[in-house]
Please model this.
Amino acid sequence: MSDKSRKFPHPYFTGKPNWKWFILITVLMGATMSALDVSIVNVGMPTMKSDFNVSTSMIAWVAMAYMITLTIFLPFFGRLADMLGRTRLYTFGFIVFTVGSLLCGMAPTAYFLIGSRVLQAVGAGLLQANSVAIIVAAFPTSERGKAIGIQGAVQAISMSIGPLVGGALIAAIGWRAIFYVNLPIGLVGVTAALFILPKSEKAAEKEKVDYFGTLAFVIGLGALVLGINGLGTDGITPMIITYLAIAVVFLAIFAITELRVRFPLIDFNMFKNGLFLLGNMTGMLSYYVLFGILFLMPFYMENVLKFSAGAAGLLLTPVPLSMAIVAPFSGNISDKYGSRIMTTAGMVAASVGCMTMIFLGSATAIWLLIIELVVIGTGMGMFTPPNNSAIMGAAPRDKLSVAGGILNMTRSLGSIFGVAVSSLILTTMEHSYLTGKYPIPKHVFSGNNIPQVDRNGAFLHGLAIAIAIMLGLTIISTILSIAKKEGEALDSEAVKEFEGI
Model:
């Protein structure tokens, strides 16, 4: 069906050519808002801690509550969107996120702020679960990768400027401004969604929500996130073991339930498609590597190379900027030649970057470090848009939103694993390195009783092993990318109209 015959919710918009680009711009508003919020909040947490006079562990929940809520609800929101209509839930996501941002800015206590972050994450989940599905429905196969690449570029740029914007707002106005900045974006986004996005329609067949399976999934995945996140900070403790045991039990209950109900939260038949399964697996592994690098490098730059926090943040910008530059071109190339070429090339580039980083020392040249970060960012920019496009192209047309929710959930889990596991490996290897030299080794950066040369040696030892594991994951991802078979993509002609999906 041509763009000229596509129906729109407002009569003045009927027949406008290239309306798909206006739909993309509307989606990009949500992508900008949610991506900006991820990086901008971290800058303000020290100020919030001081303002509320709470502990570091308490203020950490400002980030953790958002992360956990977003991760565990993505498939559920995608399922609801496939049942009730994507435009309806996407617009509601703008409203919830904007209201949550307003409440965050007005928060009188840390507890109120954490609760408002949960509400904000609900809005972000509604946006993320539907964004890629809306793009897939609006664009033909020949332009889908390009459109997803543009979305990836906007998200990368938003994340890269988050610390800069956040620091400027905090210095000029205060930490509350980092939440209020979302209000104008949200209001414009709601207006655009109401007038630009196609009309929502419910699923053709009346379906029921699998509440029991959803509850089991939320508890299981929430416990898994808490357990993995705790591994990075506390190591293996009885509480962490309890979290992981709860995760195993409830995720098993979820799997059994999904196989028995008529309308499951996640249709496991989707994973019988090799392209969908391998795409999500490699997507999770790629985000493990990306966020593992972004987590470890500031410690290396500040504690070994002795850069300031501001300089370290500036030196990390080549990663998201490289992704932003490469992503649209990678998506466009995948539209013409398929996803396998670009996803494989991207993982090869990431492998090269990880391989060179294993040999980082206490006196690494800055230009060399920047080149390595650019190679990592370029590899991720080459990999992500084609991989996302392939995943969505392999999904059934009546499950595009739940497929988008799964896609974003696996990437979120990858980022959580990347930070937590890398932190655990680093700390464990630091202690192991110092065991032979000190009777009671402490953390390498605590106290003054450990000479700088030994602290650097312990850190570099742990860093090399953590990155070597990332190298192994990029090699596995390369092999899986080669193994993927190009499936039949969902053209917008087959999908027909977005409003009926």
